[in-house]
UniProtKB/TrEMBL annotation:
InterPro entries the record matches: Enolpyruvate_Tfrase_dom (IPR001986), Enolpyruvate_Tfrase_sf (IPR036968), EPSP_synthase (IPR006264), EPSP_synthase_CS (IPR023193), RNA3'P_cycl/enolpyr_Trfase_a/b (IPR013792)
Family affiliation: Belongs to the EPSP synthase family.
Localization annotation: Cytoplasm
Major site of localization recorded for this protein: cytoplasm
Gene assigned in the entry: aroA
Protein's name in the database: 3-phosphoshikimate 1-carboxyvinyltransferase
Binding annotation for 3-phosphoshikimate: 24-25, 29, 166-168, 194, 308, 335
EC code: 2.5.1.19
Superkingdom to which the source organism belongs: Bacteria
Annotated transmembrane regions: none
GO cellular component, one term: cytoplasm
The entry's keywords: Amino-acid biosynthesis, Aromatic amino acid biosynthesis, Cytoplasm, Transferase
Biological or metabolic pathway of the protein: Metabolic intermediate biosynthesis; chorismate biosynthesis; chorismate from D-erythrose 4-phosphate and phosphoenolpyruvate: step 6/7
Amino acid sequence: MSQVWSTPHRSTPVDAVVALPGSKSITARALVLAALADGPSRVVRPLRARDTDLMAAGLRALGVRVDEDGADWLVTPGPLRGPAEVDAGLAGTVLRFLPPVAALADGPVRLDGDPRLRERPNAGLIAALRALGVAVDDGGRGRAPFTVHGTGGVRGGAVTVDASESSQIVSGLLLAAARFADGIDLALAGGVPSMPHVEMTVAALREHGVDVAATDRGWRVAPGRLAPLDRVVEPDLSNAAPFLAAALVTGGRVTVPDWPAATTQPGAQLDALLSRMGAEVERTPEGLRVTGTGRIAPLVADLGDVGELTPVLAALCALADGTSRLTGIGHLRGHETDRLQALDEVLTAVGARVEQLPDGLVVTPGPGRAALVDSYADHRMVHAAAVLGLAVDGVRVSGPEAVTKTLPDFRERWAAMLGDDVLGADVSGAPAGVGT
Ligand SMILES: O=C(O)C1=C[C@@H](OP(=O)(O)O)[C@@H](O)[C@H](O)C1
Ligand SMILES: C=C(OP(=O)(O)O)C(=O)O
């Protein structure tokens, strides 16, 4: 039995200020870099959610101390050790950031996770580790479960990496590379999605005093120490997406406080993307304010840099007044679920017409209809269903607990935005499934 969430329907304009907890991506980098530094670091206002708790637990398994200090995490590095077991859950960040750290441990580290984690692509990372002198036993699958045979050190040096399926492969290698004997000289074999996330990695490394340089084909990290650092985590701008979308759908107004003036988070691009979809977007002293104008314009865009915004943007496209075309997102087939397939099914169930492209979606809105849709264990599919449900009466989603991945109290925050006292609607036990 899985839960079913009846998403709240709302025709009146929302008017809310929605504060959001810390960024998943910044918290993950802060933890890993703190673990590799040569003294204790503090992570201030980290995201506490399944993905980041798994990252902390994985580092603890490798011998790092991660203590709670109020709402902060205090990270005290220690000798990295094996044998160890790491549970990556469904977290791409744990899957791709911890193996290069595990390679520095003094024994074998086995990494596994949810059934879907075992389908998420990782061959590019495993091949790169081998080329850098690390033995990895993956049974030839290129996926979890696999064992990294740490020997207490990594040679490092020049390596060509296929990161076409995930930018996290690049980030994982760069994060640990200063601790490799020869650092790393990473050349990309082809394209890489989600470039802002690689820029986030480079920026975070530099804040720890690491020497990172962009090269013709990739990045070079010099071997050296990582200085300890107290880091304040920015709010998660990708998780702002469904709340800001609610302003467009209801013709209302949503403000997200503490919106950073400058950031490498891809969610920063919501500003421009939502303007293109018809919203008025302004930076106010209170935060980023998005005001719906009553019209949702279709979107034609390459979302390759901002793939994780796709589920919410695609939901808006299903409510727009024309056909949208979202491209550059073939790698979303390897995310928490095959997101192009999942969005096709969900948007079709609520009345839109969807065409799948090899690297994207064409979405044509239709008359909305009630539907029971699946979350596919994907937090951002729950966000998408919530956005659809504002406009289409009777959208229910099974498996809403997937939101624990990055925003455990998503439904409470959604209800609060709408001015509801409780969860916004009933949550009941019912068999998982898709259909009306
Ligand atoms: O480095 C990161 O923190 C992330 C990189 C991106 O991964 P992909 O490049 O696999 O899309 C993004 O989608 C994910 O949510 C977080
Ligand atoms: C793709 C995502 O997550 P992960 O870090 O597990 O890849 C996401 O949060 O949208």
